[in-house]
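Example record used in the benchmark description.
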Amino acid sequence: MPCGAAGCAKPNDCQVPGQCQLFPVDPDPEPGVPVLASTRATLYVVGVTDGVHVRTVSAMPLDGVERAAVPLGSGELGPVLAATYSPIRRALYVVDDRSDPPPRRGRPRPRGWHPSTVRLSIIDVDGGGLVELGRWRVARSLEAFALAEDPGGALYVVASGGRAEVHVVVRVDPTTSPPTLLGVAEGAGPLASTQVRAGDLGISLAIGRGARAHVVGYRATELHRQRGRRLEDCF
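Model output (structure tokens):
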């Protein structure tokens, strides 16, 4: 069917020159970061590209109801590095890459790559949009990030680098602007998984490579709070 006011019945199936294609197909789709919100029985996929050149947040209820987009308001997402759901704030915390220029889509990251600038944001999943909490330059070779909220509402930001062979654990109060640094610690070994777990006492994470991977824990009381140090100074 030629282009016209009515458009194509299946616009992305148009293959004949001169026929319309209402929605641009993304040749290099990004899968996004899955986040399970068990208290809402919903799987969120953060930063997915699905047929268009825009990173979105999708909500997929586990009861089989059709997925829906979470409005981001006037905000937009860069390549998503980590995300977690906060049942306390009924929102998603997200770390995304805000490097300038951004990484080339559809091409493997070169050896030694790491984001030069990252941003921490919160997304109200009930339609409140995206709000930036802070952004900072990454001074070291840290390319893997993870997020976890503890039962008291404090947020852990974890980062590691393969070349640096270190990991950084940072605990912040995300309700202040900018987020208040509550404590920081560093350890040897890169993250083996970006799935980290926070509880009343602290946080646990897997570090190391292959058969040498193992779980370590940090008590919240073990994280040092340095006067005058800010979140952006930890990375």
